[in-house]
Every structure is written in C-alpha cells, then in structure tokens.
Amino acid sequence: MNLLNLDFKNSSKAKILTRSSVSPCYESSFEDEELKTIEDLKISDGTLTTTFLSKLSTLMQHFSNLTKRVTDPNSKILICGDLNSGKSSFVNKLLNLKNIDGQCITSPIDQLPLTSIFIEFRHYNFNYLNKKPEIHAILKKTEVDADNNLLNIVENYDCMDPETYTTFELNKLEELVSDESTKNNYSLLVAYVNEDSNIQKDQSLLKNGVVDCSVIDSPGLNVDDFVTNDIFSKQETIDLIIFIINAENQLTLSGKDFINTAKAEKNFIFFIINKFDQIRDKERCSKLIMNQVQELTPLTYKQHDDFVHCVSSREDDSPGNSPHGNGDDSIKNNSKPDVDFDKLRNSIKNFVVLKKSKNKLLPSQTFLNNLLRDLYFLTDSNIKIYNNRIQIVTDKIKKIRPEIDSISNTNVDVNKKIDYLIDNVIDSGYDFVKNAINGSLDDVTLPEYKGITNVYDYILENLECMNDKIEQSVIQSELYGKQITINAVSQIYDLNNIPENDRPIFDHDMMFNSRTKNQSNTNEPSLFKDINVWFELTDLFEPSWEGFVNFLVNGGSIVNDSLTGEKKTNDSENMSLFTKIFSQFEFLYKNPALIFNSRIPTLALYSLGGSKIINNLMVYGSSMLTWNSITNIATTLLATSGCLVGAYLINDLPRALPYNLISKYRETLKDIDYSHIQAIRVTKDIRRILKIPQLELITKNNLKLFNIKEKEKNWQTILKKLNNNVAFLNEYQKEVVNEQQKLMEIVLELD
C-alpha cells in the first residue's frame, strides 16, 4: 500500500504499522460461532474503519490540493532537512537576495525549536498592494489553522487585504524568527524580496516570466513531532522538494520518514549533500548516501547526476564565521565562481521551468497511479476475503440442509406414528365401548321373584337392574378409555424421547367429566335421558309351546331357553311347531317317570272327575260320541285348558317379564344407536386428550425446525450480502483498471 497504509504514530521515532507495503495483509478471523449477523462480516473493527475513512478524507483533500497545484502556473519549492543541516544558508546562496537598497538579505540561520516557523520568499512584484520588498506575517486564526495546513493558510491570505496579515520591514526577518511570540501569533511569514541584479532574468527562480516560483524555508524535521507532521501535510502544495543532507549525519530516521511520505507522489527529489568537503572518506560517504537514495527513491537515483548534488562549505568566508554569523553550517557564499553550485542552480531551473511536466503533472500522475494501485490491491484483497467467507457460508448451508431434511423427515415420521397410534387407540376404544354396551344385557342377574302379590315391585326392580347394567357397561368403557389413554400418552412421549421429568402431569380423572357434571345437575342419570323404556301389561307374558310343554311336564323349562334368547341356535329357531311338540313328547317318552311327577295327572283328575270319566269312557264309550256328550267333554276340556294356560302364564311371569324388558331395551338401544353414541362420546374425549401431547410435540418439533430454518435463512441472507459485496468489488475493480489504463495512456515528456 503506497497511500492507504494506516500508520498509528505516537512519536517521530516509534510507530505501529497495522498495514504497510512490507507487511502482508492477513485475513481477518472468521469464527463461525461468532457469526450471527452481517455486522460480523465487516472488513475491520470500528477503530480501523474510522481511521481508514479519515485516511480517505485526507487523500481526497490531497487530491483537491493537487488539482489546484496543477492549475496554478507558478511553482513552490520546499527546502527541508534536519535541524542544523544548512537549509537557510542554502536558501541565501540559491536566491542571493537583496533588499530595496541593494543590501544582502539572508534567511535566518539556526532556527530554534521554540521559534520554528515557515518562511516563504516571493518576488516583490507579486506584492500587488505595495509593490516593494517587505514581510507579511499571516495572522493565525484558530478556526482556519486548526489543522495547520499550509494551503488553507495561504488561501486565507490576501496581499490586497491588510487585515489578513501584519506588515514588517524586511530587515526585521531575523528578529521576527527569533521572537518566541511569532509562532503563537502568526502561521506563516511571506517575505517579498528582490534578487541580485547580476542574475539574468532567464536564470531567476522567483521571477523568470515562464514559471515564477516561491521558495519555502522550513524548520528542521527533527525539531519536534508537531513540526515534522506539519511538513508532511504541506507536500501536496509543493512542486519541488530540495532535501538538505548533512554529510556527517547522512539520512536520519526523520529524513527517511519524510522521503517515504513524499515519494508517494513525487518520483524526483533533489538531494543536496552539504559539508561534503569536510568528509575525509568522500567515496565511502557518497556510496552510503547514494545507497540510501536508491532505496528510498529509485527514479531519483537513476538520474542522480541531475538530482543529487554535493556542495562544499568554506569556513573562512561563510556567513557562519562572519561577525554577524549565528553558527549554522553554511554553504559558501563568496564572489568566487562555484561550478558545482551553478550546476545545481541550472538543474533546479531546468526542472522547474523547462521540465514542467515533471514538477507539475508527473507528481499528480504518480499520486493517481499509486492511489489506483492501492485501490486495486485493496479491492483484490477484499475479494479474496469475501470469496473465502462465501465458501465458509456455503459449506454451512450445505451442512444445514441435510439437518433440515432429517428433522423434517423425522417430524413427518413421528407425526405419522402418533396419528397411527391415536387411530388404533380410538378404534380399540370404540370397539370396546360398543361391545360392552351391546353385551351388557347378555348376562343379567335378575332380582328375586316374591310372588304374584309383589309383581309391581318385581317390575321396578327389573327396570332398575337393567339400567344399572347398562350404566355399569358405560362406566367400564370409560375406565378402559382412561387406561388406554394413559398408555397412549406415555407412548407418544416415548416416540419423541421426552424424559419423564420433562413430561407434563396428565390428570386422567378429568376425562369424561362432562357426563358427571350433567348427572349432578339432574335427578335422572344423563345416560338414560334418551332411553325411553316403559312397562306395558303385555310385558308380563311371553308364551311359547316349549314353555307350556315344560310347564305341563315338570312345571319348569325342559328346553334350555335363556332369558336373553341369545343362546338359541339357528336350528332351534327354524324348527316347526310340530317338531318342537314332538321333541317334547319324545323327551317324555325317554323319561316316563316325569309323567307321574308332573301336574298332568292331578289336573286331569280334578278337571274331569278322575276315574268317573275314565269309567264312563270305558262303559259308555260309543254313546259318548253324541253331540251333547261331545259338547260337555269339549267344555270340560276348554275349561281345563284355560286353567292350565292361566296357571302356565302365572308360572312363566318371572321369566317372561325380564325377557320382554330386555328385548325392549335392546330394541330401544338399537333404535337410538346408543352404543355408537356412547362410543363416539368416549373416543372423542380420548382423541381430545391425545391431541394435547401430539400438538405439544408437533409445536416443539416445528419450533426446532423453525429455528434451524431461521439459521439457514440468516446464512442465506449473509451469503446474499457477501455475493453482492463481491459483485460490487468486481465491478469496482474493473473501473479501477479502466482508470489506470486511461491514466497510463497519458505520456508525459520526462526528458
């Protein structure tokens, strides 16, 4: 980096380089775990960014100053060097100044640090107001001179406006410089002078009609940090730098710093080696200095015949040994011809006047070229950094995508398993409830029959018994539903590997509480609000041939005919009446003793008069076939049959009543689809409970998936911004290359 290197200086001899042309540009650390937002992808931290922007602002001001310098037809020559290197003596010798009376005017020698101030020498013809040699001390204004920029100072100076300066006689120059208050009150001393009349116009530097110049005598570089930095800030306003080197000290650290800063835009610098005649080993001294020049500014070294000059001093007649001298080592200033100094003067004049492209356009071209090179290097470095970061972010996204797919597939798989589990539980609960209610009346424990006088109580007891049986089947179904729900909730959490401690407490007693609430609000159980079974007189009778024959045979049921009728086979249901009667008599035939133990003989004897009827039949058998006899016998048989039927119905009441009530209950349950309604109610509550852990796990899994998708989205946003940055840098780099090509197409005449 030639211009954009960021230097943090705490003194003139010590500095911390964060980025320089000799130190590599290391990539910034890019820790993945610290990368949360695009803010973490900044090129540098806040301090470095602020410093860099400040550097750019300085360069833009520098560029503006260069523009003004190029458009200015005049030139400025800066004489600089370390303290006590002979700068002021060189100025005196170079200009050979005279005052209005023709007396020799010299720049003050041996400037003290406390009185260091810049002195600019101009031809008095440019003093447009008074047109005479004099000194204009430019007043210091805090708001203008806060940055101590020489260009700003000069811009605020107007020789036609006496309010911007204080006028002094020319012979007061040394007194002003020696006065400690001068530096506090004034920013710059502009000395309007006249050159020696013996110097021809075409040899004059201050006024030659082609390129008029002003010469600036500066304080020593190593006076203090402030003065050194102040000189650095003035270089863009200077067309030519003449650097005075003390042959005894060679180039010091402060001098090298100055040259390194100046070479950013000035390829050529004049080097004046003073006191060279006092060096014993001149060849070694010259070699050492030339090596330093070659290292610092190669182009100057290539043309060292024009830009590097050795000047001798003569103590016998130098101003330093004159009665009015002040001790500064000086360059010879006598009447004898000095071939080396004349050569130096011609080189300076040729460079400033004849080779204007070198002192005007070339520094600007060099500055622009260095700036564009720095921008290219900076852009290229950042492109590499961003490409590296793009690769990191891309790898991150590639790693996240399979994780997202895995979580998504796992969530889908778990949800399917949970849905399958819930469906199985619901199906199981539904089937159990329906079977339990439908089979609740299959095995009913009937109340005890206490005789015909207690028939009403027997009827109520049967109704209550059947209601209790149905209710118990519903309660049993709910208990089963709670149990399978408890097991299903545990299985759902097991599918997601949720620890026991992290599982919410499941209160299964809260299930089916809607029925309990409804039941507590009414005197009638809510289960039976829709079951309307009413007793009818016909429910007391349910005659059948099988029952009647059983009654005749043994007063009980011979055929295994249960109350529910569920145990009859399909074959027995399809039997004809004759077949059923025949089967009963066949049973009696195989068990003849039952005839004598049955009620038939007794009833026959009581009904027909016992043996009298038998005797009449045996004695008067044929006469018994008359109509009257038949009528009497039929009447007797009918009466006997009626008594038998009545006795059978009364005897069959304990069986017929439950049978009929059970049948009516079954028909009612079937008509209102009671088992289905209760199964739906129970399974609906089961599904409601199971949906709670399912939704909880779905929410938890979706949140996990959402978080990782947000992470991917964040990386995608970062990647997009990185790609935009790279696209911008690539486009900017192309513009830099185009500008460089345009700049290089401008060929300056350097010879």
From TrEMBL:
Matches recorded under Pfam families: Dynamin_N
Annotated ranges, domain Dynamin-type G: 71-384
One of the record's GO molecular function terms: GTP binding
GO-annotated biological processes: mitochondrial fusion; mitochondrion localization
Biased composition (Basic and acidic residues): 326-338
InterPro entries: Dynamin_N (IPR045063), G_DYNAMIN_dom (IPR030381), Mitofusin_fam (IPR027094), P-loop_NTPase (IPR027417)
Main location, first listed in the record: membrane
Region of interest: Disordered: 312-338
Keyword line: Coiled coil, GTP-binding, Hydrolase, Membrane, Nucleotide-binding
Annotated Gene Ontology cellular component terms: mitochondrial outer membrane
Subcellular location: Membrane
This protein's name: Dynamin-type G domain-containing protein
